[in-house]
Amino acid sequence: MRLSLCLPFLALIATPAAAEIELGVYGGAQSAPHSEVEISDDSVIGDTSFTAGWDGNSFEAPPYYGVRGTWWRSESLGFGLDFTHQKIYADDETLAESGLDRLEFTDGLNVLTANVWYRWPEAAAGLTPYVGGGLGVAVPHVEVETEGSSTGEYQITGPAAAVVAGASWSLNSRWSVFGEYKGTYSQNEAELDTGGTLDTDVVTNAVNLGVSFNF
């Protein structure tokens, strides 16, 4: 076959499909199971460990929410960033057991991950199922208070991971709505104002509803 006849074919297979950018925002209901908390401190709080029960209070200010951007490199495969402002409050039983006046990550237990996504475009009844997962970092607002001690600041506390499974439904060529389950895991080693540390690994579970814009 002559080279001149091969060139159009080679150009076709070498040209990638047009990339698509998707921006999404979401909210929902988020909770967290109990986790072990260890405090190492030679000052006011002292060394202690206990099992913390957490409340999510997703709809109380500041509310639970998330934002994400995805670069779809093909019809099925995408890459992006996902930020979730989740939060946890130690329940009354935990505070009584630990002797703390406050233990919260409420201006959030923020998690930022770099994700890989896979979708099945309009697999059934106009719905596009998708799954995703990623690795990143936890940047919570740490709030720990007791008599004579008060910590309240944003900190980078450790690595984080996220998994997502859901489905989207197109309203038109630009807008879509979606629903999903999202789970996160974060390792948190927070510094206290006393010079001590607080360690806890937190798992969160969330059911999200959101809207996305595609261009």
TrEMBL record:
InterPro entries: Beta-barrel_OMP (IPR027385), OMP/PagP_B-barrel (IPR011250). Keywords: Signal. The keyword Signal applies. It holds the Pfam family OMP_b-brl. The keyword Isomerase does not apply. Residues 1-19 form the signal peptide. Residues 5-215 form the Outer membrane protein beta-barrel domain. It comes from the Bacteria. This is Lipid A oxidase. It comes from Pseudoroseicyclus aestuarii.
